[in-house]
Design goal:
Layout (H helix, E strand, L loop, with lengths): L1 H7 L3 H5 L21 H14 L7 H12 L3 H7 L8 H15 L18 H57 L12 H10 L1
Length: 201
């Protein structure tokens, strides 16, 4: 599992070239931020899932700060934040608003449709999206925290379970490949083999 993840995760250069993380480049060189095992991977996914719902362009910065505090794998946390993007952010925020409305005894019917991306450039749409988020107020804020927390907990235990299953399967494959071939009893040989043996004698 560790080898597989290392092949797809960004390296030191990719992380340090990020404009949001460049001011903290020296801090992000700590060896524990790059160490990868079951615990650091589960923590990194939990951090990435939580910080992925941070509004605005601060997702990777907040994920990096959380990794420094919690000493979990930095590249995996940064990659995980990318589950929110222009195609998924609006549906996720709609779910968060519904959760927040239920948690605050509000009405889901007060939801306002998000701005459409068509007809706008990405920068203008981002500004309109921030205004839309501000207009939803408390239900969205509460819902984002609850949704991010739920995804984070699910991701943490999901990675731990998946890593354990991977290890068990790998151990079983190694055990099968290392076991010697079964020895046959002389009484189990076929008639041709008996004939051949008798002929040789």
């Amino acid at each position: 599992m560790r080898k597989t993840l290392k092949r797809i995760l960004p390296d030191h250069h990719s992380v340090h070239s990020n404009r949001w993380l460049r001011p903290f480049a020296n801090t992000l060189l700590h060896p524990r931020l790059w160490h990868l095992n079951r615990h650091s991977a589960a923590g990194a996914v939990a951090v990435g899932l939580f910080c992925g719902l941070v509004p605005g362009p601060l997702q990777m910065l907040s994920a990096a700060l959380a990794c420094v505090l919690l000493r979990v794998n930095l590249p995996l946390a940064l990659i995980t934040t990318l589950y929110t993007n222009p195609f998924t952010i609006v549906p996720l925020y709609m779910v968060a608003y519904a959760i927040g409305s239920l948690a605050t005894n509000g009405t889901v019917g007060g939801f306002v449709e998000p701005p459409a991306l068509s007809g706008m450039d990405l920068a203008a749409w981002a500004v309109a999206l921030i205004d839309w988020m501000s207009g939803l107020g408390k239900p969205l804020a509460v819902g984002l925290v609850l949704l991010a927390s739920g995804l984070s907990v699910a991701g943490y235990f999901g990675v731990k379970a998946a890593w354990r299953i991977w290890l068990i399967r790998a151990w079983r494959r190694r055990r099968r490949s290392a076991s010697p071939p079964a020895q046959r009893h002389p009484d189990d040989v076929g008639p041709d083999e008996h004939t051949g043996r008798n002929r040789r004698t």
